[in-house]
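Hi everyone,

Forwarding the result from last night's run.
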Amino acid sequence: MTDVTVMTLVKEAIKLSLFLSFPLLFTALIVGLAISIFQAVTQIQEMTLTFVPKILAMALVLFFSIPWFIKKLVNFTENLILNIPGLIK
């Protein structure tokens, strides 16, 4: 296995992890922004107000996107396992 092959595999794994984490991070960003606007409008400055809605929104997104996450991870793993004979040479 060459250095280029290892770097390609690492690059693909990092891309996949970023691709899979995007929906959760984007949800947290949008919910956090909405709560911040709500806090600015109402002048409620409670620090713990942001945590529960973010956690609930992220749990909801995670619940609905788990099949997609699993499909992407299984495809990546299958491709990796099927390419093992070519990687050993």
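The chain has a mean pLDDT of 92.

Cheers,
N.
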